[in-house]
Amino acid sequence: MSMPAMSPTMTEGGISAWKKAEGESFSPGDVLLEIETDKAVIDVEAQEDGVLAKIIAQDGSKNISVGSAIAILAEEGDDLSAAVEMAANASKETQAPSPKEEKVSETPLTPAPSKKPSPPTTVSKSELPQGDHIFASPIAKKIALERGIPLSKVKGTGPDGRIIREDVEQYKSESSSSISSSSAPPDPSTDYVDIPLSNMRRTIAARLAESKVQSPHYYLTVDIQMDKVLKLRGVFNNSLAEKGAKLSINDFVVKAVAKALEDVPEANSAWLGDIIRQYKKADISIAVATPAGLITPIVKDAGSKGLATISAEAKALAKKARDGKLSPHEYQGGTFTISNLGMYDISHFTAIINPPQSCILAVGSTQPALVPSAEDERGFKTVNIMKATLSSDHRSVDGALGARWLTAFKGYLENPLTFML
Fold first, then answer.
1. 398 tagged catalytic
2. How far apart are CA 56 and CA 283, in angstroms?
């Protein structure tokens, strides 16, 4: 069994947890393991009957390339002893062998007449303990790099003082325990914590950096009077109270975005290099903050759905996103993104476009403001204002087009009864 590609863009993943033990049988539909992708933790189900003969990539393994062997599967009645040898051969091809396998290969061997002598270990010049070079195994170097551990401070216990995996891991535990020890001198490294990048965080960083550098962003901001939305929301929520449902301001925003995209379909597009792809349906990506990073589950074809349906779907998707249980089809794609920070009392901000989409809408909080009164030329009145900022890719949506879309969006929110037309 090899690391599967859980999405078209996935190149590597991690093993969150095996749900079957070695030697345990499984049937179609049984969950074999959980795989951590750049977006979520996804269950991998068995497609047929079999036995999990040998696990190659253990729980917690990360950065496993798609197609790399992670386990040996067999059929009922097969000789499982052969799986051990197959797993050993497969592990030699991986970049991160298990701790047990590395320990065997790096422990000094005592010559015995009954065993065939092991071939001499070949050490690259970069691993020789000469000058500034450090004598360490590849996996030890990899772990040290990920955790920010200086190899020069790690004492090697392998052959000829070579630094092995256990040395690097032990160094971390020793430095941690020294924090609570009153007799140990203060370590400057205790003033900060190095947090290893998850696959999700690494992908977010790469995509947003690429978007900000390659997509020519521009920004348009409007003030929207939300009094009618707030009043209509109160009426709807009173009628939905007995059902345990409740509409949010964001549900109205999603609906207004979809309706505005119907009026200005050119904004519902993506820049694909040689072409601009214009979508016929409004699949709205909603930015959700999770412990692992930002993810954008999608409310599909939001223009055809009512506010109650949008609300229920958005809440369910947000919960699955925070639990890391989104399926690929629930966050891949999307034609337009909404990022709402109004619940944090943020009045105004700009957002980075979610490529290859052309637009993202940054929504702030609704706040009271004084404006001239239309009824009294010399007077003022208090209204509730929400600022919304559209970030657009100038290659596919120019300024005039962005302004047309933002005007349509503002019109729907200031006259929400038009949702019903």
1. yes
2. 40
- Give DSSP secondary structure letters for 177-191: HTTS-SSSPP-GGGG
Identify the pLDDT of residue 263.
97
Residues 96 and 187 in one domain: no
Contacts 24+ apart (CB under 8 A), 266-269: 266/397, 266/401, 267/336, 267/358, 267/359, 267/392, 267/397, 267/401, 267/402, 267/405, 268/335, 268/336, 269/335, 269/357, 269/358, 269/396, 269/397
Question: Where residue 12 falls among pLDDT bands split at 50, 70, 90?
Answer: confident
Higher pLDDT residue, 178 or 255? 255
Rounded average pLDDT over 13-35? 85
Position 131 confidence tier, pLDDT thresholds 50, 70, 90: very low
329 and 384 co-located in one domain: yes
Q: Using CB atoms within 10 A of its CB, is residue 276 exposed (0-12), middle (13-18) or buried (19+)?
A: middle
* Angle, CA of 254, 257 and 258, to the nearest 5°: 90
Same domain, 91 and 141: no
Task: Check pLDDT > 60 for residue 8.
Answer: no
Total domains in the fold of the chain? 3
Domain that holds residue 143: 135-191
Residue pair 295/39 in contact by the 8 Å Cβ criterion: yes
Closest CA to 305 of 351, 371, 247: 247
* SS3 of residue 404 by DSSP: helix
- CA dihedral sign, ordered 193, 194, 197, 201: positive
In angstroms, the CA 20 to CA 55 distance is: 10
Least confident among 163-177, 221-235, 359-373: 163-177
Give per-residue pLDDT as tens, 85-102.
Answer: 555 555 554 444 444 434
* Residue-level length of the chain: 421
DSSP annotation of 300:
T
Dihedrals phi, psi of 85, to nearest 5 degrees: -65, -40
User: Could you confirm whether 78 is annotated as catalytic?
Assistant: no
Please indicate, yes or no, if residue 109 is contained in any of the structural domains: no
How many CB atoms are closer than 10 A to CB 299? 25
**Cα atoms found within 13 Å of the Cα of residue 36, Cβ hemisphere only:** 22
Catalytic one of 30, 227, 263, 394 = 394
Q: Are residues 269 and 351 in the same domain?
A: yes
The verdict on 257 and 213 lying in the same domain is yes
CATH, residue 178: 4.10.320.10
pLDDT at 83: 54
Same domain, 304 and 399: yes
User: What's the pLDDT tens digit per position in 144-202?
Assistant: 776 767 777 788 888 778 888 788 778 754 444 443 444 444 455 578 888 888 777 88
